[in-house]
Design goal:
The structure is a single chain. By secondary structure, the protein is mainly beta. It has a domain at about 35-85 and about 95-135: Immunoglobulin-like. It contains one helix and seven strands; from the N terminus they run αβββββββ. The protein has one helix spanning about 10-25, and strands at about 45-50, 50-60, 65-70, 75-80, 100-110, 115-125, 125-135.
């Protein structure tokens, strides 16, 4: 009997291969790197102030027209697509590590966010979505009288 050192990464690779077979994705021959990349999801930061929630989504090399922001049934959705450059005669790719394709990010709206006051702005590859808090949710001071 031969003892084999356990390698958790090998198990993860095997599991990934099994999932790929189940979902119909084909494997590349051993030793070759795939030029195709999986679906991707942009990175997002969410901040809160007294007046609003702010969602910042990194969308490098995406045009404003390729991004859509909408709210439906209490869910804020950001979706779009980053298209990959095509290989041309005088341009050859040696490695492609960045992800391309369609993406969707969904966020449940906080109970104290006012869906009527949502605005989005896009500049330099950064999408900012401002969710105003409802007036009822804003803290207010109540005077306490001594009886």
């Amino acid at each position: 009997m031969t003892l084999v050192k356990w390698n958790p990464f090998r198990e993860l690779e095997e599991m990934s291969e099994r999932l790929n077979r189940l979902t119909g994705r084909t494997d590349w021959p051993a030793g070759e790197e795939s030029l195709a990349t999986p679906e991707w999801s942009p990175l997002v930061d969410i901040q809160e102030t007294d007046k609003e929630y702010l969602i910042k989504a990194e969308l490098p090399e995406i045009k404003k027209d390729d991004v859509r922001v909408f709210i439906k049934e209490g869910v804020l959705t950001i979706e779009g697509e980053r298209t990959q450059e095509k290989e041309e005669k005088d341009k050859k790719f040696h490695r492609i590590e960045r992800s391309y394709g369609k993406f969707t990010r969904c966020f449940n709206m906080p109970e104290n966010a006012d869906e009527k006051f949502v605005k989005a702005e896009f500049a330099n590859g950064l999408l900012l979505v401002h969710l105003a808090k409802s007036e009822a949710a804003k803290p207010r001071s109540i005077e306490v009288k001594v009886a």
